[in-house]
Design brief:
Blueprint: H1 3-26, H2 34-46, H3 51-59, H4 72-88, H5 94-107, H6 114-126, H7 131-139
Length: about 140
């Protein structure tokens, strides 16, 4: 096995674990709504999760560890990516906020602040900011 094979498999495993963590968040109320299912379908494609892995994860999502990013910057990067996916997919309204709030808590943001962070994130992404600006604005929104 070459080094590139190791990197590719590690990257793929990280994407699958990330996807499984989001499935676990979506399942916290015991069901996956049609909006959540549609989002998960698109997310699996974007993360290059194979069809067989997708089915396995949906069936046994608890077997994958939840590894929220340790650093605040990495949490913000994942939030940025997810909010952009939701924005591009044009999921709007209560379903958008509910899903992103659940995912925000799953990423490690405090439940007390997650609504405020998600609202700010949606505004920034809808204004077309880049990742660097996004991180800066989120970090400095309380100052």
């Amino acid at each position: 096995m070459s080094i590139s094979d190791l990197f590719d498999s590690g990257f793929k495993k990280r994407n699958e674990d990330h996807f499984a963590a989001i499935v676990r968040v979506a399942m916290d109320d015991g069901i996956i709504s049609s909006d959540e299912k549609a989002f998960l379908d698109r997310l699996a494609r974007n993360l290059d999760v194979s069809e067989s892995s997708y089915k396995t994860i949906l069936k046994d999502y608890q077997s994958h560890p939840i590894n929220p990013p340790i650093s605040y910057d990495h949490r913000l990067e994942r939030l940025y990516d997810l909010v952009r996916m939701v924005h591009v997919d044009q999921i709007h309204g209560d379903s958008e906020h509910k899903l992103l709030n659940k995912i925000g808590v799953g990423l490690g943001f405090h439940a007390v602040n997650v609504k405020y962070i998600v609202d700010k994130a949606l505004t920034l992404v809808s204004n077309g900011v880049d990742l660097e600006t996004f991180i800066h604005e989120i970090k400095h929104m309380n100052q």
